[in-house]
Amino acid sequence: MKKKHYIIIACIAIGTLSLLLIPRKQSDDNHLSTKAVKGDFTARVYSTGQLQTENSELIVLPKEMSSRNIDMYEIKVSNIVEEGTVVDSGGYVATLDHAAVEELRTKAQEELETSLNAYEDAKIDTNLNLSTLRDELLNADVDLEEKKLILEQSIYESPAVKRKAKLDVERSERDLEQKKRNYKLKQKQDEFKVYRAWEKVKVKQDKVNDIDKLFKVLEVKAPKPGLVIYSYDRFGKKIKAGSTISRWRPQIAELPDLSSMLSKTFINEIDISKVKVGQSVKVGIDAFPEKSFDGEVISVANIGQVIPDGDAKVFEVSVKIDGTDKDLRPAMTTSNIINTAYLEDIIYAPLECIFSNDSLSFVFIKEGGNAYRKQIVQLGISNENHVQLIDGVNEADELLMNTPTDADKKLFSGIEIYERELKAKADSLNNEPANI
């Protein structure tokens, strides 16, 4: 009995060893697969953004700084209230650099005094010049009278003497007329010189007056009640104490209208073609994870921009948030789910089922056992997990999710799908208007 028992054990051991030593063929049954589904399909684009108000009251540099008489094109912010401060109408917001304006006024006052001195000098010069000309005019008049008297007394003189006396009178008359014309011309010239000097005085005086007006409004006040939010300078940095504000970008801060909020986001260039005005959006707020809001795309930028410190191009998109919420504040971080497409009753499958080479997309359709078909497909829209299958796959077809070992030996099925796509692309190119 014992001998029989040992024989059975020995046979089992030999059989097990034989199974281990015989090489096994890998079965294609180990491939993961899933079925194509028919149903409703939603394509989405995901992005993060930042809350901002749709409308706001800007707090800007005083209008007095825009005067043409003031040679000041930028000014520093000496002090500004903390961001988020609630202010009343007329309440203090910021102080601009007094020292810079004082320096400007000192220079303007010096220029005014210089122009006043020049004006006084012009008047004195005019009086001296005209006084000299008047003396010359008087002397010429006296000389003419003398010549006329000599002519009258030469009545009994020889013709030659009479002739000379007459010529002397004519010469004196011409000289007198010349001096009169010179006097009038010089008078006009000097009057214009004095006028120009006075105009310069007025310009310098206006400049001093405008600087004095600016000095009185260097404390910036709120135009209405509201929550103070800092604006951004031309470099994209928030305004703060020490920031420089220019006349061409005069915003210091703003008082946002919290009743109408936007989510400002940036979409990469790969997805921007999917985003259109009017699409619905689900907006989440990082600060309040339990809250979400419905929204709508209201604008899509036509021109992209490069992300700072990067090469990726993005396009600005604005999403208007429906309704109001007292907890929402500008600059809060948002998450945006943009519904770019919705199709009913279509066939779709996971992205993992789709394979491609340089020119076409295809799937592996299981046909029973280890058999499969290498099928060309026409793809439609996609989302983060699935893609629409326009042609080449039927509902409930079982699709492999990884590549079979002998896939390279398989011929493609559905070559007519590929040919149709090529023809459609060619027709599209032919129908494009030619560039002139």
Question: Compute the gyration radius: what is it?
Answer: 47 Å
Order of helices and strands: HEEEEEEHHEEEEEEEEEEEEEEEEEH
**Structural class, from helix and strand content?**
alpha+beta
User: Which strand-content bin applies to the residues?
Assistant: 25-35%
- Termini distance? 103 Å
Number of domains: 4
What's the overall geometry? elongated
In what order do the strands lie side by side in the largest sheet?
2-12-16-14-13-17
Q: Can you tell me the residue ranges where pLDDT is under 50 for at least 5 consecutive residues? A: 1-28
Q: Would you identify the CATH H-level superfamily of the largest domain?
A: Helix Hairpins
Mean pLDDT: 87
Q: What is the number of strand segments?
A: 23
- Count of discrete alpha- or pi-helical segments spanning 4 or more residues: 4
CATH second-level architecture of the largest domain: Orthogonal Bundle
Largest sheet: 6 strands, antiparallel, barrel
Organism: Carboxylicivirga sediminis
Main location: other
Subcellular location: Cell envelope
Keywords: Coiled coil
